[in-house]
Amino acid sequence: MSTRLILLSISALMLLTGCAGDPPPRAASTYTVKAGDTLYSIAWRHGVDYREVAKLNGIGRDYAIKPGQVLRLRSSARTAAAKPITPRETPRVAVRTGPPVDWSWPTRGVRTALTTRPNGGQGLTIEGEVGQEIRAAGSGRVVYTGSGMLGYGQLVIIKHNEAYLSAYGHTQAVRVREGESIRAGQAIATMGAGPTGNPMLYFEIRLHGQPINPQTLLPR
Fold this sequence. Notes:
The chain has 4 helices and 13 strands. By secondary structure, it is an alpha+beta fold. The longest helix has 14 residues. It is globular and about 45 Å long.
């Protein structure tokens, strides 16, 4: 087995174990906003739809929040039955999502593996070279940049429409800012190092707050 394959396997294992991410308070009913949080990053961390959180807390369409604010994450009925998020396939029925997304690969690597995280998240681990460009997988707006999400390293989240978000973990040299509109294929960062120190990108797509297999949307 090649050294690259061994390192990628170790990286995937690290993502599946201790580095897998956000503390798993999937059944938490409230969250206190911290500096650097956005509504999108909070919803991502807890596996819920940002629009549901906004509705529960009377937050307007600007989705503005402030440190110290206590947010309800779920209705009382959903809290009692909360379970880890479950990856799902793209729905085969029409869903109102806003403008369609013309998906493209965020980068190319020497090897790509589908990774499922303990909290139910699912994404692609793409091995490459430190410093290679990471590009937006679709047009949209940057809704989070930072390293406050445990297990994702330096993370960028893009909102593509009312339904789809994409995330780019273990990046460096981030070139975009929160609130910035971007186009598909635009360089947003460069590849950094994963949990084991080898170069990689962790790429995830969520539909209505739930992870889906990116390979069902990306061109073959």
